[in-house]
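Hello,

Our lab assistant flagged a job as stuck in the queue for most of the afternoon. It eventually completed. Since we weren't sure the result was trustworthy after the delay, we are filing this so someone can double-check. Below is the sequence as submitted and the structure that was eventually returned. Let us know if re-running is recommended.
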Amino acid sequence: MTEQEAPLAREGTVPDQIDSASDADSAAGATDQTRARPKRKKLTGWRAFLRDVALILVAAIVISFLIKTFLIRSFYIPSQSMEDTLLINDRIIVNELVPNVMPIERGDIVVFRDPGGWLAPVPEVEQNPVVAAVDWLLSIIGLTAPDSNDHLIKRVIGLPGDVVECCNEFGQMSVNGVPLDEVGAYVLLPDGVTKVSRDDFEVTVPEDSLWVMGDNRYNSADSRYNQDGPTDGFVPFDHVVGRAIVVSWPIDRWTWLENYPIVFSGVDEGNGTPQPTPESTPSPSG
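-- returned structure --
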């Protein structure tokens, strides 16, 4: 090796030595970190099983809460106002996409918050703390409805702009001048009575509101009997929780809830002028 080549050789060998030393130091450091880091113990046996069950329960509660908040929820029926369609203590499933996503139609059964003065004050009942906690938990996932007594359930008869009138000479109610053949479909009347409302009325449904009535016409404090309230008996859209779609309990009462479109056929084309009554219309009560 010449004298001029020697420095170049030295410059070529020194970095290799530094890299080797650096690699050794890194390896030593990594070994030290590995030794210092505690090893995680894997759950096995019944501990792993309990962990999985807990995760499934938490996921189920979260999913149920989201479904109850945005899609459906359960209510129970506390009164006789919707008999025979709904009986006391029936449980129903309510579609909460109505009316914000899906439109309300005449004949729909809707659950709504009290518009003001429809419900009498109900005194609070002291509940066992354990029962109250369980009820609260079940209400989160939609299996119970402790606030059912704060809501009402009725059938939609009139939509915004509709003229609802009762009763004609045959005891029928009319919407936009079109008589409704409700008897035999969903209305419950006392024996020997064919007039579908004890009291006569005529209203025009305002914008963003509904006219609602119970199927048990002679035992329902509905729109007819709340016309002196803050909303004149109408139910604002923003008070509607949703549409009742099915009776879920008891099992022998399981059924889909209809809105009877045939009863309201022709109403959209009505102009407020009374239409000829078909011959099949029941005779007026005496």
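-- support follow-up --
The delay was a queue issue, not a problem with the job. The result is valid. The helical segments are 5-36, 45-70, 129-140. The radius of gyration is 35 Å.
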